[in-house]
Amino acid sequence: MKLYKFRPLEGTERDIDGSNDSNFKRAKTILENGEFWCSKFSELNDPMEGVFYGSADLIDAIYTKKLQYKICSFSAKRAFEKPYMWGYYANGFKGMAIEIEVDTGDVKEICYSNKIPSVEYLTASCRMYGDEVILKILTTKSSPWKREAEYRFLIKDEKKYHKIGEITKVYFGNPYGGVGNKKPIYENNQNLLNYDKLKKYLIKFANERNICCYSIKIKDGKVLPDEKL
């Protein structure tokens, strides 16, 4: 299946020379070795990530087990096509979406619900035990996050970088694409100029590794692939 990882692409020309740590360098690292950063549950952006109902004597034990897992989040195509996802996670279209081909058994689709998982219910009614319970907790999010159409790679490992699938394409945001006065808009916005330089470098870098790059466009309220870069 195809999944998408949004990345902002912020930085300056110094980043190309490797003199500064930035989102640009992190994106370059992904394209270079195909590995993605995986985080602990408490480092993700949902303030209720991994929350559950359970008796007091279970709290420490489940917390310890949750910490054993590293997580990397991706989105399905229906989220890739939403402009607000590019606005939130690709720095207002000054970023990219990395497409990967991944085996369905290697990722888990998020269940969106207004009900916080109950350990007692999962064990008694759903007959889940041990890691099954932990995975259920870590793949349940509240309904307002549903539009992210999230899939998660979860692994019990101390390593922070993991190869999750094969990178097949990279899509780059194109702010003011098709606008007649795009050039003066960029000339009067340093952030756009910086993004354009970093984008051109990464396109060349990706093409040298046989990774196809595309621009995107918005048509009828959807983000769609545009020209090959």
Secondary-structure topology with pairs:
Elements: E1 2-8, H1 13-16, H2 23-33, E2 35-37, H3 56-67, E3 69-75, H4 77-80, H5 83-89, E4 95-101, E5 108-109, E6 111-112, H6 119-124, H7 131-138, E7 140-141, E8 150-156, E9 161-163, E10 166-172, H8 182-187, H9 190-207, E11 212-219, E12 222-228
Parallel strand pairs: 6-7, 10-11
Antiparallel strand pairs: 1-4, 2-9, 3-8, 4-10, 5-8, 11-12
Characterize the structure shown.
This protein has helices spanning 13-16, 23-33, 56-67, 77-80, 83-89, 119-124, 131-138, 182-187, 190-207, and strands at 2-8, 35-37, 69-75, 95-101, 108-109, 111-112, 140-141, 150-156, 161-163, 166-172, 212-219, 222-228. It has 229 residues and is of the alpha+beta class. The protein has one domain (2-228). The strands form four sheets. Strands 1-4-10-11-12 form a five-stranded mixed beta sheet, with helices on both faces. Strands 3-8-5 form a three-stranded antiparallel beta sheet. Strands 2-9 form a two-stranded antiparallel sheet. The relative contact order is 0.21.
Indicate the structural class. alpha+beta
Number of domains: 1
Mean pLDDT score, rounded? Answer: 92
Largest sheet: 5 strands, mixed
Strand percent estimate:
25-35%
Give the low-confidence spans: none
Helical amount: 25-40%
Count of distinct strands: 12
Shape: elongated
Structural descriptors:
single chain; 229 residues; alpha+beta; 3-stranded antiparallel beta sheet; 12 strands
